[in-house]
Specification:
This protein has helices at 27-45, 51-54, 77-83, 94-100, 124-139, 143-166; strands at residues 62-74, 102-115. With 172 residues, it is α+β, with helices and mostly antiparallel strands.
Length: 172
């Protein structure tokens, strides 16, 4: 109503919104203002292809989807005759009830639950495997070579320390 000055659907009954005057759009107003306003609203808030532009959010951890079916039927003449006195003012006759009201059943057929779990795609095991692969490829090194290198350095340091300890002091 704010964008076009009229509502794009039939106006609600006045007793539900006292003091508010609704004007229904004509076909010309709908074509020039209502349809572009609806398309703009749809592209901003409903269009799933633009979801990334609207929200830069991580996917939720848990989502629940409800698949529903809709069933509708007109009210029977007998039901309208029995219940016309219980309806709000404005529906004074049985014809008003049968022409303007219907029964809508919304049925949930099943629920579908999706759980999204984020896992590391590249962990420490992968990193060590890659480093070992590169060393093996370019240097010919392996885990045994690494153990031999540590053993060699240990023996080298041990003999150097032993020489320093057993060295005889010279004349001063």
């Amino acid at each position: 109503m704010d964008a076009c000055g009229c509502v794009l659907v039939p106006a609600p009954l006045p007793q539900y919104n006292p003091g508010v005057i609704y004007i229904s759009c004509t076909l010309q107003e709908w074509a020039t203002c209502g349809l572009p306003t609806y398309i703009d609203w749809y592209s901003r808030y409903v269009d799933q292809t633009r979801e990334d532009e609207i929200c830069h959010c991580f996917p939720s951890c848990k989502e629940t989807f409800f698949k529903a079916t809709l069933s509708s039927s007109m009210l029977s003449q007998f039901y309208a005759e029995d219940h016309v006195s219980m309806l709000p003012q404005g529906y004074g006759t049985v014809t008003d009830v049968t022409n303007n009201l219907m029964v809508i059943d919304l049925l949930f057929t099943n629920t579908h639950e999706t759980e999204i779990e984020q896992l590391l795609s590249y962990g420490w095991g992968n990193f060590l495997g890659d480093v070992g692969g590169v060393l093996g490829l370019f240097l010919g090194a392996s885990a045994f070579t690494l153990i031999e290198l540590i053993l060699f350095l240990g023996i080298f340091v041990w003999t150097a320390i032993k020489r320093l300890i057993t060295r005889k002091p010279g004349p001063t």
